[in-house]
Amino acid sequence: MSELSHRHPEPAPRWCSCAVPDGDAAAPSSSGLSRRNVLIGMSAAGALAAAGWPGVANAAPGDKSVTITVMGTSDLHTNVVNWDYYKDATYSDSAGNAVGLARVASVVKQIRADRGADRTLLFDAGDTIQGTPLGFYYATVEPVTETGATHPMAAQMNALGYDAVALGNHEFNYGLDFLDHWISQMDAPVLAANAVHAGTKVPRYTPYTITTLKVKGRPPIRVGVLGLTNPGVVIWDKANVDGRVEVQGLVEAAARWVPVMRSEGADIVIVSAHSGDSGTSSYSGDLPVENAAALVAEQVAGIDAILFGHAHREVPERFVTNLATGKQVIMSEPKNWGQRVSVFDLGLEFERGRWRVATSTAMTVNTNTVVDDPEFVALVRGQHDAVVTYMNTAVANSTEAMSAAEACWKDTAILDYVNVVQTETVRAAVAGTPEASLPIVSIAAPFNRAASFPAGPVTIKDVAGLYIYDNTLMASVLTGKQIREYLEFSAEYFTLVAPDAPVDPAAWTNAPTPRAAFTPDYNYDQFSGVEYTIDLSKPIGQRISPLSYDGAPVADDQRFLVAVNNYRQSGGGGFPHIATAPVVYNAQVAIREAIVAYASAAGTIDPPSFHVENWKLVRNGVPVF
């Protein structure tokens, strides 16, 4: 039976050992250190004790209290070892952070040894299988779905003994079949209570799991964990989920399932949510809130702790008061890529035949003062080495060096190269169709200011450093008026600058907007194929000069074929018109791979042959540069 053909009552999926809530059976997801951030060395017990972390209580058998420890990671993004594939070197940043699940493993092993494995749990809050070239490689270049190999993230997470893993939005990037395959390789339950079969309320994935801790001398402790993913999935991966998966609001799903978990005997309820805690969204419309973790704590009774992620921030400890019960719900977000591990200490008391949380604290443990666990490095060594070799494969020779260092405020050759590849790929695809007569323009954004192509051999590593996301290429039709309004929206990326202010372009970027406190570089879209200026001395909505195409003014009703990535076309960033524009081309071609193929076919990258300065920044009509 197809996923869309049923509307009658159906059981939970066969891999879900969960109860279905009554009434639903018929209706078929602050960077930096703080006082609670802990650095640990190779002796966990001493370092944690020095930080004020309570030690293991030596209670007598039958004691009615116990402390359990819940560890959590999030946004690992296929970082398996402490390595930067774009730099082909050990990972480093200005704060001295380290990355990778092999580094996390050292921390987890130490904490288990200190606290006792019988009173510890390990969860993850999602965004696991995408993010580095390693993730891309084993999804598309040498896909584990075809080779039969174990995905490196599954191999490491299984070896580390995760107790449950929630789905993040990036888990859907490679399609549902790939996701299902990865889940089948995981020993831990993979959870997403709010990702349901389209048109029903039936979860497509396991909603929750309940684990029993057996601490010597204590009654069994039943800990339930509910997994929630991000509603933005239906926008950001529309091509993969449309008509197949819908994502409910986190509050709605938690309110549905937490009572079920309690009725199933969970003494303690923890939520693992791939959702930030700001209460805001990067998208508009009636889609449920993107960053809703704090709203769940506030509005859903019966939750003891929330591990959350998605925002790539570090929140060592936060308390939110539940409006119904007045109870303080503890929350923590570990910094992304394995840079931190969240650690909750929950002090439990046994009353009236059940355990309850009497005290709770949380902190984040920094992974930069331990070394990669050699067992976990060895586990993925062959796969890691294969990706390093792949990344260092030369694809073409560049006649001169190119850099993205100024791509956020100047029309650069390196970003033009992305646009020329997108334009030519779309041009070849629409040949012989009615759309072939339309002028083609292209959209690209400066994803990585550190990207560069050297003079001489350009490798896949260089291309991946320029185009760091796993986007695919699409083409839609926009009018001249729509393109102008799109550009006005993009120009909100810049602050308002006085005509005579000192030239400081780096300080003019990433401006706050009515929708967000910060505009990331990837939301500054630049067009090739049309000519325009951006006047920074003008207010928002009045910055784009009259557009021209091929030397002539663009009419409001003039139609253009627009090469665009799937994230933007699906509505990512909230740009006007593009999400509702007619789609002409969608062959699921990965843009990074298109760049590699284009460069390989040409053999030479010659900036003078494609770099056209078609836009510039001005103030009161005077060019900034």
From TrEMBL:
Its main location: other. SUPFAM superfamilies: 5'-nucleotidase (syn. UDP-sugar hydrolase), C-terminal domain, Metallo-dependent phosphatases. It is found in: Cell envelope. Its cofactor is a divalent metal cation. Residues 396-579 form the 5'-Nucleotidase C-terminal domain. It catalyses: a ribonucleoside 3'-phosphate + H2O = a ribonucleoside + phosphate; a nucleoside 2',3'-cyclic phosphate + H2O = a nucleoside 3'-phosphate + H(+). Residues 69-313 form the Calcineurin-like phosphoesterase domain. Keywords: Hydrolase, Metal-binding, Multifunctional enzyme, Nucleotide-binding, Signal. PROSITE patterns: 5_NUCLEOTIDASE_2, TAT. It holds the Pfam family Metallophos. Coiled coil: none annotated. PANTHER family: 2',3'-CYCLIC-NUCLEOTIDE 2'-PHOSPHODIESTERASE_3'-NUCLEOTIDASE, 5'-NUCLEOTIDASE-RELATED. Belongs to the 5'-nucleotidase family. This is 5'-nucleotidase C-terminal domain-containing protein. The lineage of its organism: Bacteria, Bacillati, Actinomycetota, Actinomycetes, Micrococcales.
